[in-house]
Structures
1.
Amino acid sequence: MWGMNAPNQRPIGIFDSGVGGLTVAASVRKALPSENIIYFGDTARVPYGNKSRSTVTRFSGQISDFLVEKNVKAIVIACNTASSFSQSYLRRNYDLPVIGVIKPGVEKAVSLSKNGRIGVIGTEAMVSSRAYEKELFKISSKHKLFQESCPLFVPLVENRMTSGEITSKIAEKYLRPLKRRGIDTLILGCTHYPMLRPVLSEILEGVKMVDSSEAVAEALRKVLEERHLLACGKRRKNRTVCYVSDDPLKFGKISGMFLKCPVSVRKVVLA
Amino acid sequence: MWGMNAPNQRPIGIFDSGVGGLTVAASVRKALPSENIIYFGDTARVPYGNKSRSTVTRFSGQISDFLVEKNVKAIVIACNTASSFSQSYLRRNYDLPVIGVIKPGVEKAVSLSKNGRIGVIGTEAMVSSRAYEKELFKISSKHKLFQESCPLFVPLVENRMTSGEITSKIAEKYLRPLKRRGIDTLILGCTHYPMLRPVLSEILEGVKMVDSSEAVAEALRKVLEERHLLACGKRRKNRTVCYVSDDPLKFGKISGMFLKCPVSVRKVVLA
């Protein structure tokens, strides 16, 4: 149906390795209430954070092919690892706007930081890619970036251990080096991490937390505006359709934690 | 080369979602020193423990096709989740011996337990499959089985956190219900768990631990003997070739923790 619409009425494609990118989908729904969304969660191959650049880029390409078939007008990479590894590849190979999470997050952090010392936490793959450093370097030479990989945070969130003694101890271990560096701003460089915000804020008292999802929604709005692709007209409500590569039931259950509305979930096997 | 050999000189195929199944490969090398091994680790899609039956079975079929192309004489499923979900499918669809980790582990536990109370720990998928219960039911009606899923154990091992306060606290949380049940034998129902043995033994003092890998190697020897497929002749040393679906370098580095010998690692993309 959407395929028959005018260019600006086409849906926005958002993808992630799994369920975490729904935080971005939620922000896009809020900021752009007239837009329809097609979300893809690669739940058969989740996580991406411990995989290589070439593998993550291959997966991102397969998903983008799927989204383009669904006639999306823009692609949002709602995954820090995929943004780090695959954004430039997707921009070169797809003829539509591609928005990642790195740049909006860095810009927001730079605007918030007073002492110029910014921390970023993420998966091993994201940290090793140095994507945040490269992006910051383009924007500012005055700010310093300190990175830590937190490989246990995603399993903690996915097992609903977002608080408690174990989670606090793990968070303390990961955040100690950043605390020592005197950061005043922390980029939550993984879509799962906003779920841990209370624990992180307790350890890093007074440090400003950047959840990129809102910044991404704003960056998306700007790009769509520039290209005259913003959906117009009042809709009663926008529609979010989710596709996943593994069990839709399990995804449907956990999705409520991230996206506070019912969604239809369908399974699709990519090859 | 191996393809040209007599049936008994063909290699043994072993697969796992990642690196953990190398514990089984190590036991097979030790028990059957004349055999060559082809190992497949599905590192692009690891882990399997949080995925559905249909997805894990699809992956297992793709890997078995690859191993059959490599002319293996038997397939060892060195992964508890894949054994739980896919063993019966592979037995129906492949005309060669298929050995999983469940039955050998259960048999060993039954032979060791004095009070008839056996615990098993594993991934969520494995526990939900009830494969261990079904297997035990075939062997003995006297023994009782108590299961716990331990979703953080694999990330802990893969991040080399096999000891320390955090690991002990997580292990205590998971093992408390089993301790209360008065088990005297614990099946380590995931190939990563033997790495945590010291921590587990400290919490479950006096409880016998079953690492299925040795039992699997014995089950494999028995099947090969029955079918006259044991390799004969003295080799200077057997050969293990590993194939992985993601970065071979990373696999090569971590493999030393599991398999105490150098191996050649090659990448292959399955579809």
Note: The beta strands of chain A are 12-16, 37-41, 74-77, 98-99, 117-122, 144-149, 185-188, 208-211, 240-244, 264-267.
2.
Amino acid sequence: MATRETIEAVLAGAVERARACGEGEPATYIPELANAPLDALSAAITLRDGSIVRAGDDEHRFTFQSSAKLVLLAGLLEERGEDEVFRIVGREPSGGGFASLARLETHGPIPANPLINPGAIALASILEGHLEDRLAWIERWAERLYGDALPIQQRVLASERRTGDRNRSIAHFLKASGVIDGDVDEVLEVYFALCSIEGSVVEASRLAAILATGGLAPRSGERVLSQRTASTVVSIMATCGMYDESGAYLCATGLPAKSGVSGVIVAVATGRGGIAVASPRLNKKGGSVRGHLVLREISRELGWHFALPD
Amino acid sequence: MATRETIEAVLAGAVERARACGEGEPATYIPELANAPLDALSAAITLRDGSIVRAGDDEHRFTFQSSAKLVLLAGLLEERGEDEVFRIVGREPSGGGFASLARLETHGPIPANPLINPGAIALASILEGHLEDRLAWIERWAERLYGDALPIQQRVLASERRTGDRNRSIAHFLKASGVIDGDVDEVLEVYFALCSIEGSVVEASRLAAILATGGLAPRSGERVLSQRTASTVVSIMATCGMYDESGAYLCATGLPAKSGVSGVIVAVATGRGGIAVASPRLNKKGGSVRGHLVLREISRELGWHFALPD
Amino acid sequence: MATRETIEAVLAGAVERARACGEGEPATYIPELANAPLDALSAAITLRDGSIVRAGDDEHRFTFQSSAKLVLLAGLLEERGEDEVFRIVGREPSGGGFASLARLETHGPIPANPLINPGAIALASILEGHLEDRLAWIERWAERLYGDALPIQQRVLASERRTGDRNRSIAHFLKASGVIDGDVDEVLEVYFALCSIEGSVVEASRLAAILATGGLAPRSGERVLSQRTASTVVSIMATCGMYDESGAYLCATGLPAKSGVSGVIVAVATGRGGIAVASPRLNKKGGSVRGHLVLREISRELGWHFALPD
Amino acid sequence: MATRETIEAVLAGAVERARACGEGEPATYIPELANAPLDALSAAITLRDGSIVRAGDDEHRFTFQSSAKLVLLAGLLEERGEDEVFRIVGREPSGGGFASLARLETHGPIPANPLINPGAIALASILEGHLEDRLAWIERWAERLYGDALPIQQRVLASERRTGDRNRSIAHFLKASGVIDGDVDEVLEVYFALCSIEGSVVEASRLAAILATGGLAPRSGERVLSQRTASTVVSIMATCGMYDESGAYLCATGLPAKSGVSGVIVAVATGRGGIAVASPRLNKKGGSVRGHLVLREISRELGWHFALPD
């Protein structure tokens, strides 16, 4: 097991080298995301003992976007159990894009997995109560996993709402197929809010650290998620977390992860800690260019690939 | 880390309980496979130190079928390197069946990954020399990974040849798309021979044990595969090894694996050892019913899920 | 050319024989349609000279549903011309169902043709002005082609709105793809109103008669559509009008047609006249069971197959 | 009805104008086709009375390629009847390319229609007897419909065989799906021979003329095909004959047709006559660029669109 000093040096070096790469463009389909500081780069590792290693731009805050789907999945697995959750979403890689309707039509009706948009929208539909109650559920689980009460970024939320036709199409499709019930607009409101949670790599890495310990809070060691929930979430990250580059990414890093279009990647090093990297420059498949570079270097230098023994 | 005694007890118990399950049918699309003893069940674990734990029907021998695709992949990664291998196959879950042509047409031309039929056929096409040389290459790598010179089962081979129209269709498609060159019948002959390697769970578990140690031979500790090759193969097993139940299987067991239609499953417990289970009764998706049961119990009882810390 | 007496006898006989068939079920996905009188059957032929031959239940009124897509297509071809219309929809059979999104995703962005739901929704989006203006456009063209100011059936309209999630999904998808602009709900309101035009087979057959004469009003002989518009609409009916049984239907009858889920079929016998048949019992592909029977018998007895010379 | 003089003038003018267009490239996937004289252009119309109108390069001979699928379809409909034929192929537009396997996998097992490669290969498989007998069947029906004993072009046949991997893939797929039986290589040999029939536009237009009269031989008036066979073949040409530009082509010309990659188009003007045009320059969808131009002009100038009354 690497010492804290080694981890600090490796992370600092990886961030510095990644900064040299100027490839990739920020997402534009949610217009507000295009306003992110293009060259911001930040990374944090929350270690098993709760200590935090940081590098890069401390002040960089961003919306968690699809990486927040982990909150929804973990919370529902805890409260409702696998049977209920996997009645409305699958656990399989979709083999396609993150917002595909074709697959729903040909392989559906239930979405392939909870980490693509149709899957997260389906899960958002089973939260109960008034819209306020459902938003409160999101806030509560976000606080539990990120360790802090994080705000919903209102400009991004407005941008998601204004340009969310693809997600509206998915939600109405799921309703037409009988997968979801109730008011589609309210379901989407929950989904858009989930994507608009704002924070930094520190909070994001805390969620990953909980997953890396089989469900325990860093520092306190208090159980936040059951082992079963934690291992299920990490398994789905391994197979489905990076959309259609999940396989190549896992080969290269061995760190199960979930990306978001804001450029964040949340990655799990089981038994070691949780990692988050954020940088808005995206590759063609929607993954953070520099995030990939940082995670590859961490994995290689620290020997954190899940398929390599200690 | 569990003691050898614990592992023995867990494996024996798991095999005994799995034997009670009479669900599933043997594969029929390769007629000779239907002649397998329906209720045979055998399992072996090759531990890191080279010791072997066994349970079930010792005499049970079977063809390795698709699980032998691992030999082709590992051997080519060693000899040719990633760049050459991943120029003709991808590393992504296909999101569909193991012999699908539709995906080649819509997402191709290269096959999604090396563990579905199109991927293995594509890889078989880059072996060099006369047909004898290519068969010799297969034998050599099989011996290196399985630890023994294993025979090609001639009746199964004849059955594969006689009924291999789906694979012929795939191979001609790949040739028409420019992915493979040369004589299609010779490529298929290599592929059919690979699937017809015959052995027991002991040899199959040895290959898994090599992958579980990052590439070292059990007992001798000699390096057989580079860390890079081993971790890449295991990563692809994690995302693509169990066809369209890869995701659900990984959640349940956390043991990256590759199945074969003879009912074998070869699974990797990184840092612990390699597991093989064989039983001809298959579920609807082509996975061994009892194999799944045994692996779930091993994972749960020994805490060998990759996403749970020691 | 058959005499009026022959045509009357053939139509009466065909309707009588079709009435004996009790197969098929009314559409249920628009709940209000399920309230249609299950065994109503009516048919009318408007001949070239404007005379009308009728048979069956005179009082049967129904909503025109997808058959009214012809109004939208013909009106836009007249006013905007082919270039503008075929910039946002194709002219090709889709090879799939009438409400498929998969095809939009894989072959899009523009819908395959104007007679499937995505195509008609796309066309509805280019009507101009306030919602009232667009509804007025529909009413104006419906009156011009059906020969009468027909009402919008309000219960059916309400039912379409309440259960229109599949169409909402399509419309948001088209907006997300940049095919349509503007307020999706208003576009759907126009589309739902179009489907809810209510009339009898007499008015429906008049539209078909205009198409059968290359665009002339029955009786008056006044030009309503250009030859170009009429022949284009009939050609698209021939290849795409009966969803995924268009080919088998055309072989059997040789009468290019458009069906609606209320059980209406509007069919064109070029040079002879326009035919409409209505009966709510539908086959598995959404076509009227008795409508098919009546049209097959008319075609055979009168020699009206387009591919047979006089 | 236009006079012979008018038809001659229209055809001569259309051919002259089409000659000015230098767009399009010859097919290259069958290498021998690339050797065709690039600018050859010939056209013929066989009228109802058996007289023939010609224009362009008299000496131009070419292989009939996919246009000869009409021979197979018509002959089998006559000898086996609809029930048997449409048990192994459909009658629906495929909505995709002419050699697609994806559709077989997703909508199969039977091919969508007899005018795409999978459909014609399936039909070729039901010819009976030794290979010689099946080739003799093709020759016999070709002579009956083309009016002459036409040769098989041996260089093209050799080229088809050498490069026919896509068709081999299709044939093995159909065998694997249980659609075809027997020796795949022999089925393909029949199919390749069918595509390699060589002749001129005169013979090709004779087949079309038989279809245009509901099945009667030009001049003699002798019945060659039943009305039922003729109208079924023409209906399938209308919906499926021009691959994925069938719809746009039918709108533009109203002349049901079948194309071949040698650049021939065989088109039917019901009640008037049969047309053939040949020119090797192809558009992106595999249709003859100049063939389209000639047929559009004939249709427009002579008023031969099927959807316009006399």
Note: The longest strand of chain A covers residues 42-47.
